[in-house]
Design brief:
single chain; alpha/beta; Rossmann fold; Dihydrodipicolinate Reductase, domain 2; 2 domains; 8-stranded mixed beta sheet; 6-stranded parallel beta sheet; 14 strands; about 30% helix; globular; binds NADPH dihydro-nicotinamide-adenine-dinucleotide phosphate; binds ligand LJPVP2WV; D-xylose 1-dehydrogenase (NADP(+), D-xylono-1,5-lactone-forming); nucleotide binding; GFO_IDH_MocA-like_dom; D-xylose 1-dehydrogenase (NADP+) activity; EC 1.1.1.179
Length: about 375
């Protein structure tokens, strides 16, 4: 039996998402297409790096660095994973790219579309791989859902999607250095969680995504608490089909809409569920309701439920795909190509302009 190919990861930052990502990567899987190796970890504090390595990847013996640059310059690293707050993504990626490294960077890719374009141009010039870690798009559930929607047309003609991400964050009780509170780190719901609601709408309303996405009209409103955007509401309108998206995100409630995403079509509807909108675990296809809504007699018939078991939290799908891309010498992900990252960032830019959410030091040209 031939040996599996392996991919050596350099992890930048030791915060929550890096922990989640690494925990999933080191899970032993017989059917994994590649072997993931945590080659090195960098954080601003060596003690935290040591704790991280002991706790999340004890069997990997990674090198530990107290500077991110050391990861970029480590010749044994095949791909750098960036798990810093939004405001640092652009510079972290530019530094990694300039050292010739391939990159998987957390969402939101950058603060705005102009920054995303700058990073992508740098990657193009240096001929390296760069990929926004929108892990949701890599899930088998999403591929199955889109096949049912756009190929099998199980609910007929799609006309609208509702999608919500609610995550209660008591911003006033957080330290000023929290990424949920500090504007200079990119605090705000849209870049953090609204991006998932928006992604659900794009995935379910636009059959052309990600390669030939249609530009929707996006009407947005946002509200703020102590200068931080805490509520985003977006109405999306796709001119070619008239399809409608109603998209929300908030840090003022822990109660996601249940289901967090519903897609409606002429013959039925689909409800998507899971612990959070970033972690969908099932969806159910229902036939169209029958009866008279005015008399309260609308009847819900039994639906067909599709369950998706996941390994760990479900980061392996994007990690495997990234590894396979890098090993094959590809420069872009076919699941989240550069054009789609820019597409999403442009919609969010437009919503933030309407909602009066600006990030000093980033958005002066917005
Ligand atoms: N895909 C997903 O499900 C999730 C994605 N995310 C994304 O991951 C990124 C990070 O989020 P998360 O892990 O929750 O954030 P954390 O605050 O938990 O971690 C961020 C890490 O960035 C590093 N960092 C560097 N400079 C600073 C600074 N000035 N202030 C704070 N941290 C700094 C720190 O690591 P060190 O000290 O080691 O250098 C810190 O631990 C964001 O882009 C977020 O959107 C977050 C959660 C889930
Ligand atoms: O990406 C994310 O998904 C889960 C949330 O808890 C987190 O705030 C967000 O960054």
């Amino acid at each position: 039996m031939s040996e599996k190919p392996s991919i050596r990861w350099g992890i930048v930052a030791t915060g929550m998402i890096s922990q989640w990502f690494v925990e999933d990567l080191v899970v032993e899987r017989d059917d994994a297409p590649v072997k993931h190796i945590i080659q090195c970890i960098a954080g601003r504090d060596m003690g935290r790096c040591e704790d991280f390595a002991k706790k999340y990847c004890p069997s990997h013996s990674p090198k530990l660095y107290d500077s991110y640059e050391a990861v970029y310059n480590d010749t044994d690293v095949d791909v750098v994973y960036i798990g810093t707050p939004h405001a640092f993504h652009k510079q972290n990626m530019l530094d990694a790219i300039s050292a010739g490294k391939n990159v998987l960077c957390e969402k939101a890719f950058t603060i705005n579309a102009a920054e995303a374009k700058e990073v992508i141009e740098a990657a193009r010039a240096k001929n390296v791989y760069v990929h926004e870690a929108m892990w949701l798009r890599h899930r088998p559930l999403v591929h199955k859902l889109r096949k049912l929607l756009f190929e099998d047309k199980v609910i007929g003609t799609i006309y609208r999607t509702f999608a919500d991400f609610a995550l209660e964050v008591d911003i006033s009780s957080l330290p000023p250095t929290s990424r949920y509170k500090d504007l200079s780190l990119g605090a705000g719901t849209l870049l953090d969680t609204g991006i998932y609601s928006l992604t659900w709408a794009i995935l379910t309303l636009d059959a052309g995504s990600p390669t030939s996405s249609e530009k929707p009209l996006a009407l947005g409103v946002q509200s703020h608490q102590d200068g931080i955007e805490v509520n985003t509401s977006i109405l999306l309108h796709y001119p070619s089909t008239g399809r409608q998206g109603v998209i929300t995100s908030t840090t003022q409630s822990n109660h996601n809409a249940r289901p967090f995403c519903t897609i409606y079509g002429t013959n039925g509807f689909i409800e998507v569920e899971g612990p959070t909108p970033s972690m969908p675990l099932s969806f159910t296809v229902y036939p169209k309701l029958e009866g008279d809504p005015n008399s309260g007699s609308l009847e819900r018939k039994e639906g067909q439920k599709y369950d998706f078991a996941q390994i760990g939290r479900g980061f392996i799908y994007e990690a495997d795909n990234t590894a396979l891309d890098v090993l094959a010498g590809r420069k872009e992900s076919s699941i989240m190509p550069w054009s789609e990252t820019i597409h999403v960032m442009e919609i969010m830019d437009s919503v933030r302009k309407q909602g009066d959410t600006f990030y000093p030091g980033h958005d002066e040209a917005l």
